[in-house]
Amino acid sequence: MRENIMKIPANENEIKLYFFVGEAIWKIQMVEQALSCSITLKMNPEATKEQADKVLTQHQNYTLGMAINIASKEKLYDTSLQDKLYSFLEQRNWLVHKAMSDSQHDKNWENEILELFQKIKSISDNAESIHRKIEYDMLAFCSSRGKDMPKLRELLKLQEQGVRIKSV
After folding, report:
1. Sign of CA dihedral 29, 36, 158, 133
2. pLDDT at 2 (0 to 100)
3. What is the mean pLDDT of each run of 10 residues along the chain (168 residues)?
């Protein structure tokens, strides 16, 4: 049975909210992908490309929390990065599981919207920072194994300067 539902267009604040949430989720997924690649690389440094691709497919099924716990258990990152990952997981969990309910219970939602936007944007910014740290960590790992990648280092530096890179 189909109901006649009058759709109400999103207002400006809702559009901004959806934009910020979408951006944050996208960047969180980039961190998850980087973690999957890093875990695969560090735990299988001698694997062939085919073997690594198979393992990577398995690792891509991990939730962010599972990936962070594996990295911690295997001691794949220094303490500073591992701590940042756990803190980031808390932020991600708030965004995915509590942001909506937290904002709905606030009687002054319209007054607090800018604070909510800033909190979500800070998660996006943190995701981008952690993503970059994981990329540099992978480069350092590869260099320690005799595989220096100067072109990739240059691309990362260009990204830090705000240059958009189509693909690597």
Report:
1. positive
2. 65
3. 80 93 97 96 93 91 94 97 98 94 67 90 97 94 84 78 70
Q: Which domain holds residue 87?
A: 12-159
**Is residue 26 a part of any domain in this protein?**
yes
29 within domain boundaries: yes
| Angle at the Cα of 18 from the Cα atoms of 15 and 24, rounded to 5 degrees | 140
* Residue 128 placed within a domain: yes
Cα–Cα distance between 95 and 102 in angstroms, integer?
A: 10
SS3 for 63?
A: coil
The per-residue pLDDT for 9 is: 92
Number of folded domains in the chain?
Answer: 1
* Residue 107 DSSP class: T
The CA distance from 21 to 94, in Å, is 12
Are the C-beta atoms of residues 104 and 69 closer than 8 Å to each other? no
**Does residue 168 belong to any structural domain of this protein?**
no
Closest CA to 41 of 156, 163, 147, 164: 147
